[in-house]
Amino acid sequence: MITTKPRVNHCLKPTGWLGRLVLRNMNARHSKVTDWGLSHISVEKHHTVLDVGCGGGRTVSKLAALATQGKVYGIDYSKESVAVARKTNKTSIDAGRVEIIEASVSELPFHENTFDLITAVETHFWWPDIPAGMREIFRVLKPGGSLAIVAEVYKGAQTRMAKMVEKYLPVTGMKFLTIDEHRELCENTGYADVTLATEVSKGWITVIGKKPA
11 lies in which domain range? Predict the structure, then answer.
């Protein structure tokens, strides 16, 4: 328990030199599950995209490589994450194609109907209020726009990581959802055409919902 809590804190909100180390690790470790998750959605060249909980900014850079004529925004409520994500995406930021903002999913600093696509990679289980975050994302999505949630663990997965996450829930405070609970979360928020994909051997999950046109 003594060693678990600091690690949890730096996953939840990275700070200081240890936070920067965690962010670099996240950029590397989450790359494969991110690629897998993004393979289930279509990112058009002209899309305006938001990555919620952007962490070290690796997902933002992947999205910017696809939305070559659009713009990609990343938000994170950790100052350290924002700093690292800006460094990761410096070239695209200088070109005006990427913007990284310090903000929370609970209060997104954008107008209604702004984004064609919103992604949330390895982040939703840390949100203080998942339904409220989902509603806030719904607000800033354009009609017909999509939300894609990607995670390397879900409740009920028969993997070592899933079992470890469930064991330490009282310590971490993570919100651990089953496949059905992910679907219900999207449908209860108002998302339509909800689809789910899992990589059973790895315990990965992608959940996609569309804002009705």
Answer: 4-210
